[in-house]
Write a structure and sequence with these properties.
By secondary structure, the chain is of the alpha/beta class. The protein folds into 2 domains: about 230 residues, TIM Barrel (Alpha-Beta Barrel), CATH 3.20.20; about 120 residues, Lyase, Ornithine Decarboxylase, Chain A, domain 1 (Beta Barrel). About 30% of the residues lie in helices and about 25% in strands. The protein is built from 10 helices and 18 strands. Strands 1, 12, 13, 14, 15, 16, 17 and 18 form an 8-stranded mixed β-sheet that branches. A hairpin with a 4-residue loop joins β10 and β11. The chain starts with a strand and ends with a strand. Keywords: Isomerase, Pyridoxal phosphate. InterPro entries: Ala_racemase, Ala_racemase_N, PLP-binding_barrel.
């Protein structure tokens, strides 16, 4: 049976590396837990690191954090809330990212009902064209929000590289910092956070290109994968295998390299193209106990046997080419894979994949 391991020792190591980096630059930061899909045993490992702020994009996941975390851990909902979810939002999130006045007004009304003060971080559009208000609307927007009761504006923020791949730059982040200064100067209000930092911004911090005004980060991918997202490689000093997928071989056989019979599209809509040079040739194929229901092969990274080739997948089985089977694989053996972020996300969201917390 396929299963995921979540390495507590390596998670703690990566956390210490990041904490030291942010402490050195006097930057506050939060851990993003949306990858863990509210799995209580995994969220507890993050809470136990000692972080003081946890972010997620699902209110149900923040509820898990609230049940596990001490009172001094702040929960932050990091996408504009749906109107119908606002009662639960105010109950389980101490703060939220917002870009619509009507939504903030509804939060204000609900916070009044619950006797709470809800913190708001207003998101600004910097070019990636996901969430965020346009710069020319900024002053009027803030003026309206500042008039609402039960709301405390604690930050201004932005997301980059999330939709169209627009990369963060010193110029864009300076622009975000300047927006904060303009708001504070016009309204005489203190805006504590400029939350422009995510995993993709860490390289700017390391190379001393981050504007001084950016004082808050939200980090998920680099913590769990130890990756330098900008340079598409490992982050120096960090572990890349906090998370590993183990897949079990359920069949091995020497088979023809080409299918036999009339071909049409498979259930995934794919049409197989015949390479006539492969007629009459055979290879060893292994079937693994995961399929497209669990993960796409494009998110799997073989690391112990880099000669593995992906042949294809159905809903519940993945077929790999192991060539001459020089390693002597047999039915029942496990083949491990490192994961790309989106692949790990689908696996953590699967009821069919066991999750195991381990130490080194």
């Amino acid at each position: 049976m396929a299963y995921l391991t979540f390495n507590r020792t390596k998670l703690k190591h990566n956390y210490k590396v990041l904490k030291a980096l942010f402490d050195q630059h006097n930057i506050e930061w939060a851990i993003v837990t949306k990858l863990l899909c509210g799995e209580e045993v995994l969220v507890k490992e993050v809470v136990d690191l000692g972080i003081k702020e946890i972010c997620d994009a699902r209110i149900s996941n923040l509820k898990v954090v609230k049940e596990l975390a001490p009172a001094d851990v702040q929960t932050v909902y990091i996408k504009p809330p749906a109107i119908e979810s606002i009662p639960e939002l105010v109950e389980y999130a101490d703060a939220s990212f917002n870009s619509e006045f009507d939504t903030i007004k509804a939060i204000s009304e609900e916070a009044g009902k619950q006797g709470k003060m809800h913190k708001v971080i207003i998101m600004i559009e910097l070019g990636d064209l996901r969430e965020g208000i346009m710069g020319e609307e900024l002053m009027d927007f803030y003026e309206s929000v500042f008039e609402l009761p039960n709301i405390k504006v604690t930050g201004i923020g932005s997301n980059l590289n999330c939709l169209h791949g627009v990369m963060p730059s010193t110029d864009k982040l300076i622009q975000l910092s300047l927006y904060k200064q303009l708001i504070e100067a016009k309204f005489g209000r203190d805006i504590p956070w400029v939350t422009g930092g995510t995993s993709v911004v860490i390289p700017l911090l390391q190379t001393h290109q981050l504007p001084a005004g950016i004082n808050h980060f939200r980090v998920g991918e680099t913590l769990y994968f130890g990756t330098d997202i900008v340079n598409h490689g490992p982050m120096e000093g960090m572990e890349q295998d906090v998370i590993t997928l183990y897949t079990q071989i359920i069949e091995i056989n020497e088979k023809p390299m080409l299918p036999i019979g009339e071909l049409e599209a498979n259930p995934q809509g794919e049409t197989f193209e015949i390479d006539e040079s492969l007629y009459g040739k055979t290879t060893h194929r292994a079937i693994l106990d995961v399929g497209t229901l669990d993960i796409s092969s494009e998110y799997l990274i073989p690391f112990k046997d880099q000669n593995i080739e992906f042949v294809g997948a159905s809903s519940d089985m993945l077929v790999i080419d192991i060539h001459d089977n020089e390693r002597g694989y047999k039915v029942g053996d496990f083949i491990p894979f490192h994961l790309k972020y989106m692949g790990a996300l689908t696996l953590f969201n699967s009821y069919y994949i066991e999750k195991r917390v381990i130490d080194n």
